[in-house]
Amino acid sequence: MDEERRTLEELLGIMREHDLDRIKVKVGDATYEMVRRQTAPAAALNGAAYAAPQNADAAAGAAVPANVKRVLAPLTGVFYRQASPDAEPFVREGDRVEVGQVLCVLEAMKLFNEIQGDYAGTVVRVLPGNGELVSQGEELFWIQP
User: Fold this and answer.
1) What is the mean pLDDT of residues 102-130?
2) Cβ(8)–Cβ(23) under 8 Å?
3) What are phi and psi of 44, to 5 degrees?
4) Span(s) in the chain for CATH 2.40.50.100
5) pTM of this prediction?
6) Rounded distance, CA 109 to CA 37, Å?
7) Chain-wide mean pLDDT for the chain?
8) Is the pLDDT of residue 30 over 80?
9) β-sheet with 133-134: strand ranges across
10) Which CATH number is correct for 39-144, 2.10.109.10, 1.25.40.10, 1.10.10.10, 2.40.50.100?
11) Angle, alpha carbons 39-82-144 (nearest 5°)
C-alpha cells in the first residue's frame, strides 16, 4: 500500500508540475489513470443530485450468486456513480456492461479516477452508496456473465 501511495503522490506531483488535466501510466501490471476535474461545491455533493444509497441495506444481507464476478476498489476513495451531480449514472443494476467500460469514479486526493470493468455481463448489484468512502479491495459491483 505504501508503494502505491508513493506512486500516486508522484503522479500527482507530475500533474501539478506540468499543469496536466489527465495522466495515464502503466507501472508493472498496474495502470494508473488520474483525471483532474472541477470539484462540485460541497452543497451540491450532499444535495439531491447525490441521493442516499438505494441498495445499501439490501446488499448487506444479499446472497452472492455462484457465478458472479466482483469488481473491487483499486484504491481508497469516495465512490461516485456518475461523472457530475447532474449526469446520468455510468451504470445501473440490470445494465449490460463490456470489458473496459467505465463503471464509476473514485475520488482520491481531489482527483477523480475512472474505474473500468474487467468483465462483460449484467450488473446485478451496486454495493456502495453514492458519495460513500470505500477502501481499497472493497466490493463495488457484482457482474454476472
Assistant:
1) 94
2) no
3) -70, -35
4) 39-144
5) 0.58
6) 12
7) 79
8) no
9) 22-27, 30-35, 111-116, 102-108, 77-80, 133-134
10) 2.40.50.100
11) 145
